[in-house]
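[step 3/7] inverse_fold.run input=structure_tokens len=376
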């Protein structure tokens, strides 16, 4: 559901941003700041209407440590820096890349973000390993993006460095959000399970995931919005003064609508990154690009050639195949070797390897022993 909401909101936000920047002025940092502001306003109102919904911090009896349900201070500081610097420096990096390279190379550098995200998440073990069908689908996705959007690739050494820096910052930004969200979800589940004292339903687990990501965003965005103000004043101060003098009430209303769409896109995007993965969010971004290409061709009369349409078609088909391969991989049982390793300590004697097991694993070991035939 979060993916569909993010897809719809992002398409509306992109079209709204294009309208604002083409009719008034280019102010991407201001639009980002307004989007952050509406997200913060939503959390303030939601906390007023729904007080006391967070699980209490628990105290470990043996160690005496408090198990917090929210994000740690280190995670919040890291995410504040990334959330503030990623959009504030993106405009400067994009301009520098276009100064040294062609538009085609700038688009190509964006394609390189996905492999880097996949490598980071796989090395951390925070996502399922990529099997052969998913890797093939990823190659097809980016082949389609290359065909649809990349042309006249020219570059130089400084431009390559700037473009690669943009790739690294974007990949780090998304993977850190994903890792922090997973840690917050695990901490909240632990605290909620201690409160409940028993088994919990899938709906309760889903609510825990949503609440954990919301708490992470709520702890991060206010400081990130404040940190964005100096960059906004430096890069867009003159533009804002000019807009203040020339914009009328209708223009301010359109700006407010675009800011709300930006807030919707940001909040749902954080849900996708936190509850699924940064790689899923990145692939969803490629799917959005293809939807925009087809939408502009079908409804706005954009001049697209057969090469661009065929590349977008290949990307959309590969995204659907990637989704199918991911679902199939998650539904598949673990390999026999892995199951044998998991069952080995369960079949051992209680005095040596079986000591220290949880009651559930001990019951499972007993059932395995009873089912194993006796051999004289």
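[step 3/7] decode complete -> sequence:
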């Amino acid at each position: 559901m979060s993916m569909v909401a993010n897809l719809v909101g992002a398409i509306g936000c992109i079209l709204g941003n294009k309208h604002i920047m083409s009719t008034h002025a280019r102010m991407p940092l201001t639009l980002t700041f307004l989007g952050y502001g509406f997200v913060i306003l939503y959390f303030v109102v939601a906390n007023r209407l729904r007080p006391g919904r967070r699980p209490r911090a628990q105290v470990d009896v043996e160690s005496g440590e408090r198990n917090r349900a929210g994000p740690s201070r280190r995670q919040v500081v890291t995410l504040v820096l990334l959330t503030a610097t990623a959009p504030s420096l993106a405009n400067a990096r994009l301009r520098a890349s276009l100064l040294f390279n062609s538009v085609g190379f700038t688009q190509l550098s964006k394609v390189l973000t996905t492999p880097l995200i996949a490598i980071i998440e796989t090395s951390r073990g925070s996502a399922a390993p990529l099997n052969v069908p998913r890797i093939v689908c990823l190659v097809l996705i980016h082949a389609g993006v290359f065909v649809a959007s990349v042309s006249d690739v020219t570059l130089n050494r400084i431009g390559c460095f700037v473009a690669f820096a943009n790739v690294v910052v974007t990949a780090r930004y998304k993977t850190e959000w994903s890792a922090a969200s997973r840690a917050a979800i695990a901490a909240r589940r632990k605290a909620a399970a201690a409160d409940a004292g028993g088994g919990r339903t899938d709906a309760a687990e889903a609510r825990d995931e949503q609440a954990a990501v919301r708490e992470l965003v709520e702890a991060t965005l206010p400081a990130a919005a404040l940190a964005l103000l100096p960059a906004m004043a430096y890069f867009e101060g003159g533009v804002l003064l000019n807009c203040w003098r020339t914009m009328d009430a209708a223009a301010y209303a359109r700006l407010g609508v675009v800011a709300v769409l930006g807030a919707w896109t940001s909040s749902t995007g954080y849900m996708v990154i936190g509850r699924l993965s940064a790689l899923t969010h990145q692939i969803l971004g490629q799917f959005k690009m293809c939807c925009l290409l087809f939408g502009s061709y079908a409804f706005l009369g954009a001049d697209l050639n057969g090469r661009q349409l065929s590349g977008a078609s290949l990307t959309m088909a590969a995204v659907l195949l990637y989704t199918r391969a991911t679902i199939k991989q998650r539904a598949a049982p673990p390999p026999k070797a892995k199951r044998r390793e998991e069952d080995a300590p369960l079949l051992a004697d209680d005095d040596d390897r079986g000591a220290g097991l949880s009651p559930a694993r001990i019951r499972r070991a007993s059932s395995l022993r009873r089912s194993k035939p006796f051999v004289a």
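[step 4/7] annotate
The mean pLDDT is 75.
The longest strand covers residues 58-59.
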